[in-house]
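Because discrete structure vocabularies remain unfamiliar, we turn briefly to a single example record, giving the amino acid sequence and backbone structure tokens:
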Amino acid sequence: MPAATRPAPGAAPDTGVPRTVLACGEVRTCLLPAGQALDSRAAAQLLRLRADERVLVSERPNLYGRSPDTLTGVDCPLPSANGARVRAVGTVAARASLTEGRVLQTSAYFTLPASGPDHRRPWGDYLVRPGVVEPLGKLPCDAVAAGLLDGGRHGDLDVGLIAGGLLTRLLRHPLLDQRPPLRSRQTRLRWVALTAPPGEAPALERFTLAEDELRTVRLRVPEDIPAADLAGLCDDLALHDWLLTTLVRVLDGIRLGPAAPGPWPPSAPDGGLPPVVRALRPAVDHLLHLWMPRARVSGELAPLWEALEERPGFTRQWLALVQRVRDQLTLHAIPPVRREVEPAS
């Protein structure tokens, strides 16, 4: 099902392809390696992946840029949890986005119909259905969904390699001075979305921290929701998970506590900022204003955020972390108390 079309529930696309039963993707998220955030013009220059389509840039509710989609042709086995070898052919869509000129994301995704022909078609037949990967024969949906989340074996279709390759390309852009304001790590969010029964509301069935840098998401959604909207939801989840992860690591990497005694006011050339303040200041300058869940999630999928707010409580954790940062900055802004000890007589 092409990302731009919305067939009626239960109806097959006009191309004759059986109805979509599975969508999959992976998102890579990292801090842009630049000393200063990019403005809208520089962001559009960074994200211009194709000369024939413009970059989408918006300034409300925050500065956001998104590249046009690019397509990668694939012809390889699908991952499968039960070891079934299902060959698939088609195209994977990929795109990049930049939030507030500071957080860079690349996303690759595709959809799978319930079945396909027993033989490979000419490439032209696949190119007219961008973002659709067609199995040869019947698709073992549940086994492939589990295999996609697990990552599969060497040689299987790996959508993360496509997202990662695009990220590597962008990180080498001459606009970037390779001087990020703080240390952080790249995260990966891998997702699958299975088709829900008619009349069933979208559901986020599972969100898992699989490894240090990998998260997995399993969704159940109506058939008529475009893959691009699903990718947008998962981009949003990945962005806010990255913000939480990064701020946790900033706080874990410093020694919190009261300000150490010393001369007051500070007289050092750098203002004599305490180490805690120097460590926290980049997070305040570059991260704290980025928290804005569901800013660009479609209305049909926005309620899925409620599951993450309920448990594990994304926004509650974020607000608690932000308060810790502010408490430490306030604590170190207060002159240390000194007690004069009278000499013994």
Residues 1-15 have pLDDT under 50 and may be disordered. The first strand starts at residue 20 and ends at 31. Helices lie at 40-46, 123-127, 141-150, 159-171, 227-252, 275-286, 305-310, 314-333.
